[in-house]
Amino acid sequence: MARHLVIGNGKMLLNLDHNCYIRDIYYPFVGQLNHVGGQYCRLGLWTEGQFTWLEDAAWDKKLGYIEDSLVTDVTARHYGLETELQMNDGIHQRETIYLKRVVIRNHANREREFRLFFHQDLMIDGSEVGDTAAYYPDNHTLFHYKRSSYFMFNGFSEEGGITQYSTGIKRFHSAEGTWRDAEDGVLMGNAIAQGSVDSTISFRTSIPAGGEKTIYYWMSIGKSLEEVKKLNQYVQDNHPEKLLSRVVVYWNHWLNRAEKDLGDLPPEVGRMFRHSLLMVRTQTDERGAIIAANDTDILQYNRDHYSYMWPRDGALVADAMSLAGYQSVIAPFFQFCTDALTPEGYLNHKFNPDGTVGSSWHPYTVQGAKRLPIQEDETALVLFALWRDYQRHQVIELPQSMYSKLIRKAAAFLSGYMEHSLSLPKPSYDLWEERYGIWTYTAASVYGGLMAASFFTELFGDYERSDHYRRTAEELKQGMLTHLWDEESGRFARGLVQKDGGWVKDMTLESSLFAVLEFGVLPADDYRVIRTMESIRDGLAVRTHIGGIARYTNDYYFQQSGEIDKVPGNPWIICTLWVANYEIDSASKLSDLEAPRRTLEWVVSQALESGVLPEQLNPYDGSPLSVAPLTWSHATFVQSVCKYAAKYKELSLK
User: Fold this and answer.
1) Does residue 138 surpass a pLDDT of 90?
2) Which residues of 333-351 are buried (b: 16+ CB within 10 A; e: fewer)?
3) What is the maximal distance between C-alpha atoms in the chain?
């Protein structure tokens, strides 16, 4: 499972796989709706009576991006056909237009005709029912539509525009789709199809021996036929070559605000840092939703996906992007959370990109007892991230605009949702969404959220509330030190669970215990932080040649091994970086940064060829597991690089 190439502009998102096939098109929200749904929009080539799809094993492909941009840079070579393709894909920085440039190189010693076939397999609005695909003679294009979603396809070569087209039925009875019609190099020219449909268009060009020619292809998306016609005309008027160049220039300038002095980090870490900023941007809807991941291959395992906005992921991603200087990119996230907050003052489990409540597996009742189906850390972390953003950028208008609707309401909930006998938060679900109890991670995040609320209320002159939130946070901290610190093992417990009417410690070793440091409960030099982080570093290390840090002991999610002593769980990018962040925070001399520098280099080495970071890795061969890219992985890498660069500067002055 992976999406090797990802491009977007905050209004639409497009994913390509390792064959350079379009697999997902999200519009009008990033992460919602998916108009391909993981199907294959194929690309094929015909020459001298031979036809091949790019999925054929004979193609040798190299995947990547034009440096510091969201325009792909892909080469595919077929030695048997003596042909090479150079491909660039991009989405216009402002409009809902996808652009593709294909340079065909003829390595044979004779002139040849080439026909390039583009296959469109759409499931408009997420369903195959009721789609229409049709040839549109007025502007010599082909378009698909259903209700208010329109997709228009066009292109040209030196010899002219679309030379062949066909529409047809797919995945119904014996019909496989028009892509089969392409395999003899000739399309039958069916002008319209309705229902479960697809389409294929082709372009031709003649290339002399040793020469090359370029074919352009584009897709415009809109809410009406008139809108996509207008966008199509815009591409023709401006030329796709110029538009793709402008996309590269735009993203180059967008990266200008990123930190350039990264200390002694090698160039490949710097490239991944900038690429990670771009990857996070693709997963961020301009209306505020920061989506966890948009790799629909996960549907093979879960019958649900990651195309949701978890407030926890969103807050941590927003914090990292704020740290990197991208305050304007993530400011809408806080407004999203303000609008999504319940009247009671908490945030639900997860949300769709349009702000509606997402699917959930947290029950409202268990064995007849009512239960609030939340992960309390998700509410707390939004306040925590908002305060850190204000500290860095001093944009007081942002928190002021949501002071009464978000800050005070959420803080009132956090300060009231307490298990007073323990001075800890009441039970909720953990950050992994797997278990119910009182968790060290959750308690630490609530501490951070309450302290943020105290700072905000003081900032706005509300001193009585500020004192109340600060007192509650200090009581919570004492509750953590009393009930969650375990002197015998020398580390914090994962949390407390109810058993036989009482609370008992869950001593499973958990990487998320880093939260005690991250959210300000204790400093990096506190012995309890040191011993806890050393336990994580030693006890959750994956002892294969792949390396990395697992989530927790005997992690079941995509489990690949029963050798728990050797492989406590699959290595996760974020968990490995959490240990590196502790090592950065605790560094007192430059030589202390050697270990986190190696970790950052390790992350780069575990990325896909295109620079995409997965959620987790196979502990034996390093292949990506679960989704890729995971926004949280890229954002945590951004955070770690920023922290490293700052600490390197600090220690260099000593």
Assistant:
1) yes
2) bbbbbbebbeeebbbbbbb
3) 85
Phi/psi at 644 (5° precision):
-65, -50
Examine the pLDDT at 445 and tell me if it is beyond 90: yes
Give the model's confidence band at 1: pLDDT under 50 very low, under 70 low, under 90 confident, else very high. low
Q: For residues 153 and 623, give the distance between their C-alpha atoms in angstroms, rounded to a whole number.
A: 35
pLDDT at 429 over 90: yes
Residues sharing a CB contact under 8 Å with residue 404, sequence separation 6 or more, in sequence order: none
Q: Where in the chain is the domain with CATH 1.50.10.10?
A: 326-521
**Which pair of tokens denotes residue 207?**
């290339």
Give 134's strand partners: 143, 192
- Residue 492 has phi, psi (to 5 degrees) of -75, 145
Question: Residue 404, exposed/middle/buried by CB under 10 A (0-12, 13-18, 19+)?
Answer: exposed
**What's the CATH number of domain 326-521, 1.50.10.10, 3.60.20.30, 1.20.1050.10, 3.40.50.620?**
1.50.10.10
The amino acid at 109: N
Cis bond before residue 33 (omega within 30° of 0): yes
- Residue given tokens 């560094």 in the structure block: 587
Quote the DSSP letter at residue 403: I
Q: Angle at CA 224, nearest 5°, toward 192 and 167?
A: 15
Is the omega angle on the peptide bond into residue 571 within 30 degrees of 0, that is, cis?
no
What pLDDT does residue 295 have?
85
Range 5-254: architecture per CATH: Distorted Sandwich (2.70)
Distance CA 591, CA 247 (A): 41
* Residue 89 φ then ψ, to 5°: -120, 140
β-strand partners of 616: 572, 625
pLDDT at 109 over 60: yes
**DSSP letter string, 463-484:** HHHHHHHHHHHHHHHHHHHHHT
For the record, the structure tokens of 191 come out as 């002008």
Say whether pLDDT at 219 is over 80. yes
Burial 70-81 (b: 16+ CB within 10 A, else e): bbbbbbbbbeeb
One-letter amino acid for residue 567 of the chain: V
Q: Mean pLDDT score of the chain, rounded to an integer?
A: 97
Tokens of 381: 């972390």
Positions of CATH 2.70.98.10 in the chain: 5-254
Q: 612, 626 in Cβ contact below 8 A?
A: no
- Interval 248-257: pLDDT, tens: 999 999 999 9
pLDDT by residue (tens digit) across 16-33?
A: 999 999 999 999 999 999
Q: Give the integer Cα–Cα distance in Å for 44 and 156.
A: 16
Rounded CA-CA distance 513/506 in Å is 12
